[in-house]
Amino acid sequence: MTRSGWVLGAAGITLVVAASEVLGRAGIVHRDFLPPASVILTRAGELAFDPLFRADVAATLTAWGLGLLIAVGLAVPLGLLLGSVPPVGRAVTTIVEFLRPIPSVALIPLVAMMLGAGLGMRLTVIVYAAVWPILFNTVYGLREVDPLAKETLRAFGFGEPSVLLRVSLPATLPFVATGVRMAAAVALILAVTAEMFGGFGSGIGIFIAQAANYPGGIDDTLAATVWAGLIGLAVNGLLAGGERRLFRWAYR
Known about the structure:
Layout lengths: L2 H23 L11 H11 L3 H34 L1 H14 L4 H12 L3 H25 L3 H9 L4 H39 L5 H8 L6 H29 L6
Helix pairs in contact: 2-10, 3-4, 3-6, 3-8, 3-9, 5-6, 5-8, 6-8, 7-8, 8-9, 8-10, 9-10
């Protein structure tokens, strides 16, 4: 992100915080629904020193990281197969287009009945949601590979596996990285949502769900939501920075 982008982003956040503070202090919105921003941010700061909340954050990040790792391990090889072997791609297109629009959240009750509300359920829905951006970016990246480069290698006697490893895969990696960054945000959303549906154990979603059920818990609910947003912002920033450093040539 450019410096002007950071400035505009900071200005947008400042505007939202100021609006929340004004609405809360002026009583335009009842405090039980929207406390002033200063109250929420203060509580968010206090949660940073709460060992139980830190354990919840660690549980969410563990499920998120494992789910994203599994999604990468499944989606990248599958995307390379579908993009490199057109008959296979055409054969599974109908199945993929049938599964892709199914909302991951809608699967949570079904998966919870089958696997229980533990880590297995969370990983299943996280992987299901995160696999699509990586898969389609991998396939799209393969389609964008310079055909002249591939034909040149074939003219020198290289087989398809060598063309894939020497030309197609390196050229596709920036697309894969973008897919992983998109999937990371989706995976975090599903991690928190699955925890909220699960109802017990540890996790930011469970903290939010439990805080919403006791009087005055709106401060904790919104403070934990702030932390979920900050984690998502940090993850996106790290992955975007890594993309620009690793694939500098793709951003020229």
